[in-house]
Amino acid sequence: MEDLLNKAETQEYFINMGPQHPSTHGVLRLMLTLDGEIIKKVEPHLGYIHRSIEKMSEKDSYYQMVHLTDRMDYLSCHINNEAVCLAIEKGLQLEIPDRVKYIRTIISELTRLSSHQLWWGVMGMDLGAITTFLYGFRDREMITDIFEETCGARLTMNYNVPGGLMFDIHPNFQKRTKDFIKHFKKKLPEYDELLSGNIIFTERTKDIGYLSKEDAISYGVTGPSGRGSGFACDVRKRIPYSAYDKVEFKEIIYTEGDSFARYKVRMDEMKESLYIIEQLIDNIPEGDFKAKTKAVIKLPDGEYYQRVETARGELGVYIISDNKKNPYRVKYRSPGFSNLSALDTMARGGKIADLVAMMSTLDLVIPDIDR
Amino acid sequence: MIKAIINYFKEIFTACRTLITGMKVTGYYFFHPKEIITQQYPENRATLQMFDRFRGEVVLLHDENNEHKCTGCSACEIACPNGSIEIISKKEIDPETSKPKKAIDKFVYHLSMCTFCNLCILACPTDAIKMSKSFEHSVYDRSKLTKVLNKPGSKIMAGIKE
Ligand code: SF4
Ligand code: SF4
User: Fold this and answer.
1) What is the share, in percent, of chain A residues with pLDDT greater than 90?
2) pTM (predicted TM-score)
């Protein structure tokens, strides 16, 4: 029998995962080279949802280009908007009222929470637990309601404008946010009971999809995925922007580098986000919700770069201006693209069944990768 | 040997316990249906209220005399990032001064291209347009999504200047 097995020839083969596959969460195509069910190579193919957002921004005015970033990483749309606005404000050397900074930070953290809630739900669902999906969406609904009341939209909010915010916060905003914090603090332990301790879940994530700290750094894996490998890369902590220098919070770092570590980072980050919001919500200073800007913004000649921490990692906005009313060149460094590049290293030698779990813990949003 | 067997059963026991912990949560909601927050759409259509700032679609406000505030200045058209608004203007004779002045002929709005960014509303100097709360936009024919917003026979309110 032994002999027979040794003699048997195995052959590597290709398989296409996607572009239409329910657990790639979008149109991502992975070309897998397999030996039996062992993964030899993962080659991501992109371009199925390319909308040339960078090129379109070149023809838009500085006011108009903000709303396109809603459609990149739609789960952190407010943070994307904020990044562009911060870059433009840097170019204009505009002094932003404190009120704006506080509100931006609160809504950014709410965005992060809602993104992580959705991720948690989807992560469970990818591993076969539909319950988590419904529970995640139940709590996310409260946040989208807050957004809808204050910003006017649930997902693609476009609430930031260069210089400040589109409108002031709604009178109900603070009350609703506090209600949500109270509600979610009760519900967060349920998340742990449902999934974190579940034996099926832990067996499928612990010691699987290992990414070393060196690899994380060399691939530029940032955000919760990088911090799960021990890479201290939280932009909010390293280069604070908006009101992050006024609040206390922990940078969550796990050193295991496996799927479960990345999961735990996001779970703990939710608690930190709640804590940040709690510190700010009662202290929003009075003042204008927008600094005065001209009707046509012209950035002075030069290059401007701003990085922020979205729910997925570090988003960089790079604008080159030649003193016209639209930018000369815009480049977005999206976190999803760099995070995806590490998938090959993580998955090699693993089982094909675990690939979906690994992708889930990277928290990929495909429009963010492709732009 | 015995230790291995004990460990084996211990593992099975802990595994079952973690599963039951999860089941407890779902069981709780099964017996507390009041905590379920699902909305029954479209059954609740009559009572469903969107928030005031909700961005449904762009509408041109008309008062009871079929008058609107749009001067045809095209500020909204310029502000729109994707050409969803087309202002087709005409010259008409001002009854007061009997001089020709600009007025809108057609305010064309392509709902199918609109990204609901709200920039046109902010740009309008006379607050003639606003976002409505309607959100049921589906139609069978795409051409129905191109709308002329000024009502037939409507004219500009007295006293509104560019
Ligand atoms: S909401 Fe935005 S996209 Fe829609 S018509 Fe107004 S400016 Fe254009
Ligand atoms: S709606 Fe407002 S901005 Fe647009 S043309 Fe009329 S007056 Fe000008």
Assistant:
1) 8
2) 0.88
The pLDDT of A309-315, averaged and rounded, is 89
User: Residue B42: inside a domain, yes or no?
Assistant: no
Residue-wise over B58-82: b if at least 16 C-beta within 10 A, else e? bbbebeeeeebbbbbbebbbebbbe
Residue B93 lies in a domain: yes
Q: Which of B37, B116, B122 sits opposite A141 (nearest CB)?
A: B37
d(CA A355, CA A365): 16
Residues of B in contact with A148 (CB under 8 A): 50-51, 53-54
Residues B92 and B31 in one domain: no
Domain boundaries, chain A: 49-370
In this structure, what CATH number is given to the domain that contains residue B68?
3.30.70.3270
Contact between chains at A195 and B131 (C-beta distance less than 8 A): no
Contact of B116 with chain A, judged by CB distance below 8 Å, is answered with yes
Question: Is B53 domain-assigned?
Answer: no
- How many of the other CB atoms lie within 10 Å of CB of A274? 18
Same domain assignment for residues B141 and B89: yes
Query: Is the sign of the CA dihedral A362, A340, A160, A291 positive or negative?
Result: positive
Question: What is the largest distance, in Å, between two alpha-carbon atoms of chain A?
Answer: 81
CB of residue B87 inside a 6 A radius of ligand 1: no
Residues B77 and B24 in one domain: no
Q: Does this complex have an ipTM over 0.85? A: no
Both B12 and B84 in one domain: the answer is: no
- pLDDT by residue (tens digit) across A47-81? 888 888 888 888 888 888 888 888 888 888 899 99
Number of domains in chain B: 2
List the end-to-end C-alpha distance of chain B, in Å, as a whole number. Answer: 92
What is the reported pLDDT for A318? 92
Query: Does B116 sit in the ligand 1 pocket, CB within 6 Å?
Result: yes
* Domain range for B20: 2-35
Please report the pLDDT score of residue A2 as a whole number: 67
Do B88 and B30 share a structural domain? no
Closest approach of chain A CAs to the CA of B99, in angstroms?
Answer: 30
**Helix axes of A98-126 and A130-151: crossing angle, nearest 10 degrees:** 160
Collect all residues with Cβ–Cβ distance below 8 Å to A234 and sequence separation of at least 6: A227, A251, A309
Cβ of A152 within 8 Å of Cβ of B54? The answer is: yes
CA of B24 vs chain A CAs: smallest distance (Å):
9
Average pLDDT, chain A: 86
B87 C-alpha vs ligand 2 centroid, how far in Å? 8
**Ligand 2 pocket, B75 CB below 6 A?**
yes
**What CATH topology corresponds to A49-370?**
Cytochrome-c3 Hydrogenase; chain B (1.10.645)
CB contact under 8 A, B22 and A141: no
Phi, psi of B43, deg, nearest 5: -60, -30
Alpha-carbon separation of residue A136 from A114, B58, B76 (angstroms): 9, 33, 39
State if residue B72 touches ligand 2 by the CB under 6 angstroms criterion. Answer: yes
Whether B66 and B136 map to the same domain: the answer is yes
CB of residue B79 inside a 6 A radius of ligand 1: yes
Residues B13 and B88 in one domain: no
CA of B87, closest atom in ligand 2:
5
Q: Is there a domain that residue B82 lies in? A: yes
Confidence of residue A4 (pLDDT cuts 50, 70, 90): low
CB contact under 8 A, A156 and B115: yes
